[in-house]
Design a protein that fits this description.
Glyas_Bleomycin-R_OHBP_Dase, Glyoxalase-like_dom, 2,3-Dihydroxybiphenyl 1,2-Dioxygenase, domain 1, 268 residues, Glyoxalase-like domain-containing protein, alpha+beta, 15 strands, 6 helices
Length: 268
């Protein structure tokens, strides 16, 4: 475990209206879409037919998406293309837009898969492409938020590349802005933290697990709410500008955060 590298690389928000959520993120975070399976021409992103393996994956799950870089990390927005898509059931359970996935980049996938299976996690799916491989753990076992381990096969892991961002995006090499962490609200945060620790191979310290880049924290969910990806920390933002933009769009705000897609985005 000591030689394994793992970093928070992407979070995913499930939305009823993909374009409205993308527009909110553009305004609040200053992030611009660079790639997706949706028609993003309104943002100056030309449509390119996805590779057959990628098209089959999104068709199977009834999804379209948009990828927005935050420095060299990413926020993904997904939305359903048909009423029987799994994400529709997820949104119904949550009562609206909500955080969907916590995605980490690793430099070897097998150790994480072995630990997860040994700990009794169910595998919800994943992708196995020539350029990229990932493993999705079932949210029924991870406290309501899907945990995904992702391995870059193009270039070298941790060289900055990220296959889901499409063929034209290039890493900037800047340290900010960046995803600095995320918070899971859970009915039993101690139990969920132990489960994540078993799969990730990192200890729980207080109520958090520290990664090589970023962290995940575990807090108690409010009364009457289920487990969820409640907040995402973003380093390097202009907090005043973020809050002003959120208020102009009529979004919910608090002292250090704005709520988009059911998730609090915190300027840290």
């Amino acid at each position: 475990m000591a030689n394994e590298r793992i970093r928070l690389r992407q979070v995913c928000v499930a939305a009823r209206d993909l374009y409205a959520t993308v527009d909110d993120l553009r305004a609040v975070l200053g992030a611009e879409p660079v790639h997706g399976k949706a028609d993003l021409g309104r943002y100056g992103v030309p449509y390119e037919p996805p590779a057959p393996h990628s098209a089959a994956f999104f068709a199977k799950h009834g999804l379209v998406n948009a990828m927005l870089p935050v420095g060299d990390d990413f926020i993904e927005v997904v939305a359903a293309t048909r009423p029987d898509a799994p994400v529709v059931r997820f949104l119904q359970r949550k009562g609206g837009d909500a955080g969907y996935m916590f995605i980490v980049e690793v430099d070897a996938l097998d150790p994480y898969e072995e630990r997860a299976r040994a700990a009794g996690f169910r595998v919800a799916g994943g992708a196995d492409y020539p350029q990229y491989r990932d493993l999705h753990l079932d949210p029924r076992d991870t406290g309501g938020t899907m945990l995904a381990f992702s391995l870059q096969r193009e270039g070298r892991p941790f060289d900055g590349g990220w296959y889901p961002a499409g063929p034209h995006w290039k890493p900037s090499g800047r340290s900010a802005p960046a995803l600095a962490g995320a918070e899971l609200a859970c009915r039993d945060p101690e139990a969920v933290a132990r489960r994540w620790s078993a799969a990730i191979g990192r200890p729980v310290e207080g109520a958090r697990i520290r990664l090589d880049g970023g962290e995940v924290r575990f807090t108690t969910a409010g009364e009457g709410t289920g487990d969820s990806l409640a907040a995402v920390d973003v380093a390097g933002l202009d907090r005043a500008r973020m809050l002003q933009a959120a208020k102009q769009r009529g979004l919910e705000t608090r002292a250090d955060a704005a709520r988009v897609g059911g998730v609090w985005f915190r300027a840290v």
